[in-house]
Amino acid sequence: MADFHQPVLVKETVTTLNCHPGGIYIDATIGGGGHACHLFKTCPDIKLLIGIDRDEDALLQAERKLVSFKNQVVLIKENYSQIKTIISDLQIKSVDGVLLDLGVSTHQLLSSNRGFGFSAEGPLDMRMDREQQITASDLVNTLPEQELERILREYGEERYAASITKTIVRERKKQPIETTLELAHVVAKTIPFSSRPRKIHPATRTFQALRIAVNDEFANLESVLPDAVDIVAQRGRIAVISFHSLEDRIVKNFFRQQSKSCVCPPRLPKCACGQIRKLKVLTKKPIVPTAEEIRMNPRSRSARLRGAEKL
Question: Strands 232-242, 95-101: parallel, antiparallel or unpaired by DSSP?
Fold first, then answer.
């Protein structure tokens, strides 16, 4: 389990959060505890770190990794969209920083029984929380063609969404598509060889789209951002690492909107919205991995870090 997950943009994330002794921080996607461990190395006198994750495997690994700081850590199995309820239950009024590291972990991708990847045969699952009912197999085999196409097109930005969906619907009429390799084969045979991406498997975008849909990732992100602003204390910080252009756009637009004192249409002669500026954006452009980090960890290549400070 030592290689559970290699965190990305570690130094940049630590700098963005700017932890201080006595502070309370939330790692809302603690994963294997990689970022959290570096936060403690930089600031060992953090008062409390609240680690949240939907994946029991991640929480077990985080507990092992952070054993030296166990008296300063609380680990909670929950969806980060419940962040307000979580700190309320802990009788905490505000925190000094929130970290969101979105996407899927290396452990999830490489565990064939989880169904996130297609390096080996496994059930078409993709649930981050295995107590959840709906799986990727359910979506692939039961969704109407139009809805399945929408998911591939919007969440996966897949240009061949219509063709892939038609092939899936045709194949599932013969027999259910139940494994990762079965779905990967269906997708691969649909995309023309000349149009296949060079650096990724042709099924990558389809798997990404289904994972996002299964775990309702975009809706959870849109829900947690305003809640994070509410619970962060003045001069507290929010750091978000995304791996998908649509996720990054959600974060960018939210930070930008919250950093304005007026969002009225330009044609209005006087402000009527009454908005109060809540954030100072710390990253005009997203922070991206260095060439060296990408060389050492190719999965980091699409990472984007954005940060903001509560006013």
Answer: parallel
